[in-house]
């Protein structure tokens, strides 16, 4: 028997645990330091796609548009490998690393993916890209667990 999304009342975790929200916001701020806003949005969108987090997808697609990321990039981000030169070398490295961090089906980030990112980012930038991917994964998993609906669905 399949339940509808409305069938189970979910915890309002950010109300019951406001310190969690504060900590997540602080982590998000720290992870975003020294990462270009556009690159950060691509990382957040790709992880949110993989994790099926509608709330974060809605938020970060809106933010990406506000920051001028092209509709073509947003349309093709799920197929970035096949998109030719549409995505820069840094974007491709960050997206590959984000996918590997998000989907640990092999149990680790492959050496070639890590080396590819290390080749185009400084140590500081690489640490921040990793932190950003980890942070959006944490947000995704919380929001998926509580079935946080996109803003439009909340009205």
Automatic annotation (TrEMBL):
| InterPro entries linked | AhpD-like, AhpD_core, CMD-like
Pfam families per the record?
CMD (PF02627)
Where the record annotates domain Carboxymuconolactone decarboxylase-like, the positions are 18-99
Q: Which GO terms describe its molecular function?
A: peroxiredoxin activity
Protein name, entry field? 4-carboxymuconolactone decarboxylase
């Amino acid at each position: 028997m399949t339940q509808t999304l409305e069938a189970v009342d979910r915890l309002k975790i950010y109300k019951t645990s406001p310190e969690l929200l504060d900590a997540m916001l602080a982590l998000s701020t720290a992870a975003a330091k020294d990462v270009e806003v556009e690159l950060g949005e691509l990382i957040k969108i790709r992880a949110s796609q993989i994790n099926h987090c509608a709330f974060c997808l809605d938020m970060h697609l809106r933010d990406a548009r506000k920051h001028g990321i092209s509709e073509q990039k947003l349309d093709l981000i799920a197929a970035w490998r096949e998109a030719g030169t549409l995505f820069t070398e840094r974007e491709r490295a960050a997206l590959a690393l984000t996918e590997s961090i998000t989907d640990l089906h092999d149990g680790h980030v492959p050496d070639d993916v890590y080396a590819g990112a290390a080749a185009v980012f400084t140590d500081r930038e690489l640490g921040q890209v990793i932190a950003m991917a980890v942070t959006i994964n944490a947000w995704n998993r919380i929001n998926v667990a509580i079935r946080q609906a996109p803003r439009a669905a909340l009205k």
